[in-house]
Amino acid sequence: MKVAIIGGTGYGAVELLRLLHIHPYAEVKAIISHSSAGKSLTELYPHTDGFMQGNMETFDVAVLKEQVDFAFFAAPPGVSRDLLPQLVEAGIRCVDLAGDFRLKDPEVYHKWYKADPASQALLEKAVYGLPEWNKREIAEADFVANPGCYPTAALLGLLPAVHNGLVDPASIIIDAKSGLSGAGKSPSAVTHYSEINENMKAYKLGSHKHIPEIEQLLAEAGGTQQPVSFSTQLVPMTRGIMATIYANLQVGLSETELLELYEKYYETHPFVRLRPQGEWPATKEVATSNFCDIGLHLDERTNRLTIVSVIDNLVKGAAGQGIQNMNIMQGWEQTTGLWMLPVYP
Length: 345
Ligand SMILES: NC(=O)C1=CN([C@@H]2O[C@H](COP(=O)(O)OP(=O)(O)OC[C@H]3O[C@@H](n4cnc5c(N)ncnc54)[C@H](OP(=O)(O)O)[C@@H]3O)[C@@H](O)[C@H]2O)C=CC1
Ligand SMILES: CC(=O)N[C@@H](CCC(=O)OP(=O)(O)O)C(=O)O
Description:
- The structure is a single chain.
- The chain has about 350 residues and is an alpha/beta fold.
- The chain folds into two domains: about 1-125, 3-Layer(aba) Sandwich (Rossmann fold); about 150-315, Dihydrodipicolinate Reductase, domain 2 (2-Layer Sandwich), CATH 3.30.360.
- The chain has twelve helices and 13 strands.
- It has helices at about 10-20, 40-45, 60-65, 80-90, 105-115, 120-125, 130-140, 150-165, 195, 210-220, 255-265, 315-330; strands at about 1-5, 25-30, 70-75, 95, 125-130, 145, 175-180, 200-205, 230-235, 240-250, 270-275, 290-300, 305-310.
- Helix 1 (about 10-20) links the parallel strand 1 (about 1-5) and strand 2.
- Helix 1 crosses helix 12, helix 7 (about 130-140) runs parallel beside helix 12 (about 315-330) and helix 8 (about 150-165) packs parallel to helix 10 (about 210-220).
- The structure holds NADPH dihydro-nicotinamide-adenine-dinucleotide phosphate and ligand 2.
- Ligand 2 binds near residues 99, 149, 178, 183 and 234.
- Ligand 2 binds near residues 98, 182, 183, 210 and 234.
- Its main location: cytoplasm.
- It is found in: Cytoplasm.
- Pfam families: Semialdhyde_dh, Semialdhyde_dhC_1.
- Pathway: Amino-acid biosynthesis; L-arginine biosynthesis; N(2)-acetyl-L-ornithine from L-glutamate: step 3/4.
- It is an enzyme of class 1 (oxidoreductase).
């Protein structure tokens, strides 16, 4: 199948190219660039030398319709809102790595993204693409809204607990740390080496656009959801997210029983791996892979459950999950092209 990547010079796009190169059924035929059409990707990213023929192109629906059957959007919010419907209309199925189609309520999008939402009709048509939650819906979708990186880590950590009513939904606290590639390739004062090296920085507390995304899916999974506390911090590494999640247990289960329940929940989901009792994952253990690794701890003194969930933000948090969604949409085994050992150390 022939594929286009839109937002060609960003980190998400380059990660898509890396992973699609080893995919047995997908081939990148076009890279669309807003800033660098006419240039070769290798001019900007020498590590891609020999892996992409031809130059990047401008967005043209008529040309893309002849070139490809599938497209990934890896551009900032606002771009897919305007361009993706044109491709879907032309019969090209899409996965959007940005957040334009994740939230079902246009007013909620407007409030948190501070931008105009897509139409209500398109938001209703969009399928939120978390394969461990709604694989069947993804398979039928014309276009999929790939989850945000933090929501992926947080939701995979919380789904078994919330879906089974194990924790008090009002007590959930998500404390999440991300490497710098999560902020994209454009440098900023905060991501400047001398600012973030040997440093950690909290940001967007109470205002992060992933808050409504997390709450939307938890409400779907648990039937109801109170606001969650969500704090984000930058840590001096390139890849990786660790979400440490706290919630009050509201059922009389032991740590062993909780772990068994998580194992059962994820038994048919190959990309989620549970650590044995007394062990918790590290970001390096999933780096460059599509895995989400999870460890649990039940503090019997406080009756509080701690869930540690790690992903690579560019893979399970973006390009890898996007390809997992494409696989499901195409009726291929979801692990196709994604079954690989993390790079370690
Ligand atoms: N980095 C991550 O870990 C994750 C990112 N995402 C989301 O995926 C999308 C891509 O992220 P990422 O690759 O990191 O971002 P980058 O900032 O690295 O790249 C985004 C790319 O979008 C393109 N683009 C197209 N139109 C515009 C425009 N009007 N203004 C600015 N850029 C434009 C640019 O490439 P060009 O000029 O070549 O078109 C740019 O390089 C974003 O929506 C992001 O939020 C989601 C999950 C995780
Ligand atoms: C470290 C860092 O800055 N991370 C980004 C999240 C990246 C992501 O998933 O964003 P989208 O929802 O836009 O797709 C942030 O906090 O905004």
